[in-house]
Amino acid sequence: MRSRNTCTSIGATLLLLAATGTRAQATDEASAAAITDPTTQCTPYGYAPIAASNTTGLWPTVWLPLTGIQPNDATAQAKYNSFSANIPDIAPQGTLGGSLNTAGYDGTTDPDCWWSVSQCTTPKVSGLNPDIAAVPEPRTLGYGFDDGPNCSHNAFYDYLTEQDQKATMFYIGSNVFDWPLQAQRAAADGHEICAHTWSHRNMTMFSNEGAFAELYYTLEAIKLVTGYTPQCWRPPFGDVDDRIRYIAAQLGLETIIWKYDSFDYTAAPLSQIQGNYDALIADVASGTFDTVGAIMLTHELNNFTMQLAVDNYPKLAAAFDYLVPISVAMNKTQPYVESNFSLPSFAEYTASRASTNSTGGSGSGSSSGSSSGSSSGAASGSTSTNATKSGASTGSSAGVALLPRTAVALTLALLGAALCLCSL
Ligand SMILES: *[C@@H]1O[C@H](CO)[C@@H](O)[C@H](O)[C@H]1NC(C)=O
Ligand SMILES: *[C@@H]1O[C@H](CO)[C@@H](O)[C@H](O)[C@H]1NC(C)=O
Ligand SMILES: *[C@@H]1O[C@H](CO)[C@@H](O)[C@H](O)[C@H]1NC(C)=O
Ligand SMILES: *[C@@H]1O[C@H](CO)[C@@H](O)[C@H](O)[C@H]1NC(C)=O
Ligand SMILES: *[C@@H]1O[C@H](CO)[C@@H](O)[C@H](O)[C@H]1NC(C)=O
Ligand SMILES: *[C@@H]1O[C@H](CO)[C@@H](O)[C@H](O)[C@H]1NC(C)=O
Ligand SMILES: *[C@@H]1O[C@H](CO)[C@@H](O)[C@H](O)[C@H]1NC(C)=O
Ligand SMILES: *[C@@H]1O[C@H](CO)[C@@H](O)[C@H](O)[C@H]1NC(C)=O
């Protein structure tokens, strides 16, 4: 005969199993996107395509600042070799692990167009495009978020979907590999994905090859996980000079920066950070953006920054005429190297929904026309009204593991309860 204690402990174990089963991570984008509990969202999970593609050590270690191309990565090496002789002869501005060395730099002549010193966005080296620091459309906000994908972003992305609002997401390569299903959600929801480097360090500190690797492996990570290769990037901390711009340009990347900073990522008091949002909003009213729109630095970093974005969305939408992904404001309808995803032009985006300042958000019917859900290859100018992620499958097809696992655990728990009843 089983003792009562044993019975209790079997029951507890089985209940724990049941709980674990209920909290199991999903294995595909749709089931991951449906998880509401942040702790469950942030429970690490494996993703077979990453492991399968790393048999030869092709991928760097996540969060490691990169000093160069992975050994034996002939493809990356060939790409780098194709332009390395022409990289502007500018020394790294400091050493990895240390701080930026601005002391000996002449910020007045600013020979390297080093943003960290001068906020320079017009390169001195010829042939480089100016950075995008504001969107050209008047009374328009280029709406974007840095540092994702954050594991717990479902409430935030749910909110954006409810508002029928797309944004530009600047994804860190290491976060993409840590949270691939979350990264897939951005693609499925029709957001625009840009690169935000592998390890999120100041880019001007890297060697030429290290800087290349930070961008190259981030693009490859986003491609592996979402199927898309971005053509835009944002330097962490805004730290870019003409050497880094040149390397980014060789990878087909436009540099996107900002003129307004929410400082939402700092430890500043909420009142101060809210004040930065309020100042931007006040500038709309005072006519600052009547000829050229705005870009503000905001983050998908953690619950604080995402909740702040949610809380401010109605105010931003009421103040600006339009909130759009940055490529939409640039009429860049093919944001990726691949042609099977298209964004609407600015005119298409704004025609397909009422001005944000008259509706304040959701319910206006047709959405912005992402075609991420269709995998048929039908591409440009799509005005599909079905931009929800329901039909989207951006890569993995591992299927539904959540339900069966929960069911098994619940069955076990019931079995345990029955066993205990019998033995008492
Ligand atoms: C890929 O493999 C290398 C070598 O085993 C390892 O150092 C690295 O951490 C792995 N990267 C990822 C993202 O799994
Ligand atoms: C990057 O440089 C800025 C100064 O421009 C500094 O505040 C920041 O801490 C640096 N970040 C890292 C990761 O070194
Ligand atoms: C993502 O957000 C959660 C919730 O705030 C936070 O605990 C976590 O540290 C964030 N992850 C990263 C990588 O910053
Ligand atoms: C922030 O956390 C609170 C408490 O867990 C939660 O109710 C809220 O939905 C979260 N906000 C976002 C945007 O994730
Ligand atoms: C939005 O509202 C402002 C006044 O607050 C007005 O000048 C502007 O024309 C409106 N935009 C649209 C597209 O309705
Ligand atoms: C985008 O297209 C509109 C016309 O639909 C035009 O007015 C605007 O100047 C274009 N913007 C850019 C950046 O090309
Ligand atoms: C888009 O096309 C690329 C190949 O060009 C493919 O790898 C990717 O899976 C496609 N993505 C979607 C969502 O169809
Ligand atoms: C949208 O989805 C519905 C069914 O969910 C379908 O009947 C309709 O044809 C779709 N519209 C477009 C434009 O794809």
From TrEMBL:
EC number per UniProt: 3.5.1.41
Catalytic activity line of the entry: [(1->4)-N-acetyl-beta-D-glucosaminyl](n) + n H2O = chitosan + n acetate
An example GO BP is: cell wall organization
Bilayer-spanning residue ranges: none
Q: Segment Disordered: which positions?
A: 355-397
Q: Which GO cellular component terms are attached?
A: plasma membrane; side of membrane
Its keywords, alphabetically, are: Carbohydrate metabolism, Cell membrane, Cell wall biogenesis/degradation, Chitin degradation, Cobalt, Glycoprotein, GPI-anchor, Lipoprotein, Membrane, Polysaccharide degradation, Signal
- What sequence ranges are listed for the domain NodB homology? 139-337
Q: Which cofactor does it need?
A: Co(2+)
Write the signal peptide boundaries.
Answer: 1-24
Q: Where in the cell is it found?
A: Cell membrane
Extract the InterPro entries matched here: Glyco_hydro/deAcase_b/a-brl, NODB_dom, Polysacc_deacetylase_ArnD
- In which residue ranges is the amino acid composition biased (Low complexity)? 367-397
Q: Enumerate the GO terms in the molecular function aspect.
A: chitin deacetylase activity
Q: Topology versus the membrane, per the UniProt entry?
A: Lipid-anchor; GPI-anchor
User: What Pfam families has UniProt attached to this entry?
Assistant: Polysacc_deac_1 (PF01522)
The name this protein goes by in its record? chitin deacetylase
